[in-house]
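Milestone M4 deliverable, item 7.
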Amino acid sequence: MFKRRHVLSMRDFSREEIDSVLETAASLEPYAREKSTDLLSGKILALLFFEPSTRTRMSFETAMKRLGGKTINLGSAEASSIAKGESLADTVRVIGEYADALVIRHPKEGSARLAAEFSPVPVLNGGDGAGHHPTQTLLDLYTIKKESHLENLSVALVGDLKYGRTVHSLAYALALYGAEINLVSPPTLRMPEQIRTDLLGKGTRVSETSDLSEVINRVDVLYVTRIQRERFPDPLEYSKVARSYRITPENLTDVKDGLIIMHPLPRVDEISPAVDQTPHAVYFKQSFYGVPVRMALLKMILDGGQDGGLECGGEIRGTSKDRSKDRSGGWSG
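Output delivered:
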């Protein structure tokens, strides 16, 4: 069952479970724009964002409201008790008593899984440092399915593959669909070896290069990411790779007719605005698709939705008092 499950990592999903989410999202897409529903009337979603966010935060808020529910927002960490030294564990214990589910984005990898250990309600990972971003991956898969195809796919993951949590999660998911994955990055920003080893262990076809021209004309999906300044401890190292790739209309003269270009946004200068006018650009549609996909997750977790045995970090059991017994804090926000 989906009901009352955590959503922490794409590694917790089977292909059948992903398909169930995508099917539910398709059924809810009309409600993401025009129609109204009160499926989650009386439910409250808490938003705990310890890092800046536009699309993830606002699409979750939109999704909840489109379903007839409400949201509460932690706001900036500086304006909360976190500024007084309250631990992440205590924060989610408290806010979990105010809401029916919570979304957390945090700069430290593993923070969402830690939150799930202490939360009395389901936790959805909105991005944990350089770790995972499962709801982004689900909307990415929905975009690919809507705008291209998921079977026999050839995809290029381009840019910051070392710190880019979106590509970490997406690579694991694409492996479930038998995709050929082409990794394109500067040598210092290669996909972590553990992820590459995991993919190869699953029989996934993986290639690796720093030269985008080697693969751009033979892929179905070009998934571009920005080089993330905020992930670099050394500004000098960031400056060495900051403008490694830039997609322009000139790059696209010999690509497949059906190529789609995706980006989790925000972009800086890695995709020229001139590309927006080409039939290949789907990144703004991709951003919208976050609403029906997150509607699907919220419905399935809070309302039961489809059956499917989603094993995303385990089911919430017992009371917050039971779960907090013999446990200590961990990580201040």
